[in-house]
Amino acid sequence: MKNFTDDELIAEIKKRFDDNKKALHDLRMLSRKLEDMNKKLMESESMKTNFISNIKNELNNPLTNALLLSKSLSDGEISEEQIKEISSSIFSELFNLDFQLTNIFAAAEIEAGTSPMSISNVNVDELITDVLDNFRHLIKQKNLTYDYSFVNKNEENPYFKIDSTKLQLILKNLVANAIEFNEGGGNFDIKARKHTTYLNLIISDNGPGIDLDHQELIFERFRQLDTGANKKHKGHGLGLSICKTLIDMMEGTITVTSKVGMGTIFTIFIPESKIDINVGIFSDSGNEFFFDEEEKF
Question: Which pTM value belongs to this model?
């Protein structure tokens, strides 16, 4: 057995003490991480439970209302004005149901990894105009106004290579948010700039705003800042998480700037796809059209 000098013995004891101290520190850090992970899992389960509870009502209510309204159309004689009002209400309820189902299906595809990119040449200006037209009835119901501007920095080419379905869903969710969280008589803005290599979108509203501590949370799946039996706003916590995931898939970015009482601004940058399109694939308003090379015009 090796004989240690006093200095060597002290050094060895110090080394073992430091090793034990480090091991204890690592153990504490691991314990904290496990506690944090367990807390997040419990929060996730709680959010999923709330989501299932909310989605049951969010899906049942418009469907039940549409059925009742449809029945009133088939029962007895009603005036032409009543027919218009009931038809408008049925459309509104079914539009809401369709929008929610679209988000649920999109979230399921993302979760399953079955949401591939489908690139086409998209007329962004027409696509945004079409999205706004789809929400016109909700804008009218809340007596809102909006300003939309489109700037094409490459005027020779009105098209942008991107997945039109994903871009359309991103815009629908952000426009729906701007409408939902605006007070009656409010305003929201959409600014779009198509550059040579990227697309910039800015969606702003003058709604209640988001506290700084909550701004990162809004992109989490199932996360809703307005919860409980007395919640004021519709939704189930999927929209913004879908936006973030789809934008990430397109190698873009989305950021939020907001102050309580001052409204919210979402800023998006999406690079143009580098995928070569061998067949002329054009998309207006989210619908794709295919032309052979010689048929382009």
Answer: 0.71
Give the angle subtended at the CA of 219 by the CAs of 214 and 225, to the nearest 5°. Answer: 45
DSSP alpha helix (H) spans, the chain:
6-74, 80-112, 124-134, 136-141, 164-180, 239-249
What is the 8-class DSSP label of residue 4?
P
Give the Å distances, CA to CA, from 19 to 2, 11, 28: 21, 12, 14
Q: Give me the long-range contacts of 215-224 (CB less than 8 A, separation at least 24).
A: 215/256, 215/258, 218/256, 219/243, 219/244, 219/254, 221/47, 221/107, 222/44, 222/47, 222/48, 222/50, 222/51, 223/47, 224/50, 224/54
Q: With contact defined as beta carbons under 8 Å apart, do 72 and 78 qualify?
A: yes
- 3-state SS assignment for residue 257: strand
Contact in structure between 129 and 171 (CB atoms under 8 Å) = no
Contact (CB, 8 A) for 202 and 266: yes
All domains in the chain, ordered by first residue: 119-295 (3.30.565.10)
Average pLDDT over residues 135-153: 93
- Give 233's DSSP letter: S
The rounded distance, in Å, linking the Cα atoms of 264 and 26 is 41
If we measure between CA atoms, which residue out of 194, 211, 190, 214 comes closest to residue 202? 190
Q: In the beta sheet, which residues pair with residue 191? A: 149, 202
> What's the pLDDT band for 20 if we cut at 50, 70, 90?
confident
In angstroms, the Cα distances linking 297 to 291, 292, 294 are: 9, 10, 8
Cα→Cα distances 211→178, 217, 218, 226, 232, Å: 16, 10, 11, 12, 17
